[in-house]
Amino acid sequence: MSDLMTRVLRRCSAARSPRQRTWKHLSPLLRLLILTQLAFNVGFYAVLPFLATHLGTAIGMAGWMVGFVLGLRTFSQQELFVVGGWLVDRHGVRPLVLAGCVLRIAGFAWLGYAEATWSVIGAVLLIGFAAALFSPAVESEVARQAVIWEEEGHGSRTRVLALLSAAGQAGAFVGPLLGALLLAVDFRTVCLAGAGVFALVLAGHMWLMPQHIPGRVRIRERGGMRVLLRNRRFLALCCAYGTYLLAYNQLYLALPDEVQRATGSQEALSWLFALSSLLVVCAQLPMTRWASDRLDLRRSMATGLLIIAAGFAVVAAALPAGWTGTWALLPAAGYVALLTLGQMLVVPAARAWVPDLAEDGRLGLYTGALSSISGLIVLIGSSASGSLLDLGLPPAVPWLVLAALPALAVALLPHRPESAEGEKEGGPVP
């Protein structure tokens, strides 16, 4: 028994050591940015999982309008990422992070007091625009630092980007639990708590974020957008990534509807979000190591998209049985698990691919454009999926449609040429 226990402990130690080595070799700036992602998601996910129910019950919005508002939030965030990325290239990381935190504080406070539809839309737009400022700044700088980390011989850049995803999901794990606890008071309290988290982030960055980051050159010349729009490989990546984001957005639209159908309430929703976040926190780095040893970036994204499609198919297959009660949540839990596994392959691979496709000095712009183009897909797709759920179709049909989308998106992925230089030239997409 003691020998068995010794072997188990050795394996656990071996599983932890790559994560410890990765964190140990990170620069102080990378550590700050990764912890920033953690804090961002605590504040954000304390509010967002409960927004759809609040809009449908307290505000009284129709299903299509709820879907539109959720899509508008994603659109205002993702579509304006390209503006935020362009501003990062011109003005640096620190000003954009600070400005975004200020706007996010104002947006959450506004949402807590919003009652009319126009007021909700205004608050949601402000919340989205705030993220369009700070997220491209954080993500592009982490990607740039990850390339440097790789060039210094510490390992694949995807490990750093996977650590960023794991930190974000740790925040997404804590956020819904905090929100569920505060929801016992009311939705306004949840929003104000989210604003308070961003106030703490703002204070921390005013103190710790350097005024100028070594090696980051500010670009003043125009014309970067024209080159970007001719980069067909990059645009193909954006479309495939947008399909993933549309699938992920169903956590806030289709999943609450299914949980309500199965149990008559949405009490289990926070636990399903916790399941997703816990999976990423525990498995993101092992999954990334596995993928980096066996798959290139394209195959990693393709595998992830197919796994996501399987998650929707699990719910579609179970719905005709009409199960209700606690056990009826198992298909939804399977969907969440498979969506999360697919996400763990798709997100680090997409972020790691962008520096190879980006024009020199324009990493912020390309990072922002990745989110902006995919945000347009989410806006259109979210409204359509919200209407699909309201049409009175057989329950499995919307889930089958949603399963088909990520599977079809695999064909959009560009094939990687032998050199990164070839990718920046924007050759034809097969």
TrEMBL record:
Main localisation: membrane
Keywords, ordered alphabetically: Cell membrane, Membrane, Transmembrane, Transmembrane helix, Transport
Record's bilayer topology term: Multi-pass membrane protein
Protein name: Major facilitator superfamily (MFS) profile domain-containing protein
Residue ranges of domain Major facilitator superfamily (MFS) profile in the record: 29-421
UniProt xrefs under Gene3D superfamilies: MFS general substrate transporter like domains (1.20.1250.20)
Compartment(s) of residence: Cell membrane
